[in-house]
Write a structure and sequence with these properties.
homodimer; three-stranded antiparallel sheet; 44% helix; alpha+beta; 131 residues; DNA-binding; 5 helices; Arc Repressor Mutant, subunit A
Chain lengths: 131, 131
Amino acid sequence: MTEPEAERAPLDPEMFDPVCPSPLAPFRVGDKWAPMVLRCLQDGPRRFSELKVPLGGVTAKSLTRSLRGLEQAGFVAREEHGGTERRVEYSLTPLGRGLLGALDAACEWTREHWDELIDAQEAGLSGTAGR
Amino acid sequence: MTEPEAERAPLDPEMFDPVCPSPLAPFRVGDKWAPMVLRCLQDGPRRFSELKVPLGGVTAKSLTRSLRGLEQAGFVAREEHGGTERRVEYSLTPLGRGLLGALDAACEWTREHWDELIDAQEAGLSGTAGR
DNA sequence: GTGGCTGGTTTCCGATCGGATACCGCCCTA
DNA sequence: TAGGGCGGTATCCGATCGGAAACCAGCCAC
């Protein structure tokens, strides 16, 4: 099992480079932020405000919508720790962990063919410019 | 190489069941019709009007947009056979064939976990109904 | 010359997506 | 009593998505 937060490394605020071209990847899961949320949860549960850090410009609304979607699909679990302080933690379900694995395979294919993808797209952009 | 159309089996008009729940699959490629278009091209080049058949309700506009997108990304090639009759054929590029293979792997994962996906989603729908 | 097939384009329209901004209750600390 | 952090909601807005319907040129057969 994973250690209780304090023992886990905090999320790297720059784990998603703002100029990263990942929107060009042909595979998509959920909405715009969903794949990154899954990635953020791979080392254990995370709090709402913890997730906002590496996700740069995400607004609370967008992050909430993304989390609700993942929760409804059964990929993410939301747990309210009703202690004296407010504390909500999100974690991967086993199904969500499996999805992340499958997504990794898709990412791997993308990485392997990245140069071809870029070249083909540039050729396509110039070749179909007039239509 | 593939035989010249007349020798290839025509596309099954019902190859995409209208009640097929594939929109529930977590992986998406391109726009709404793109994965089905790729699938239609796996046995060789197809004509525009040939593609419309198994794609049930697709409008010419939507199919055109989808094909242009795939062409621009370098997954599909468009060839105009300027003979006496008008004839346009769409085919997979090597890159597109590779994408279809990777997509197959994602589909396989989805098929393997289909029951879990359905169960989890139903639980999620009832569990988060009030939020 | 009229109609039909092919492979589209154009216009319009409603639905959805995603961001900006403001606001909220609850709890803690100073 | 005021302010700050947490975990959100509510409202508005512009951009994009996707379908319906109309229209089009080129070529064919009747």
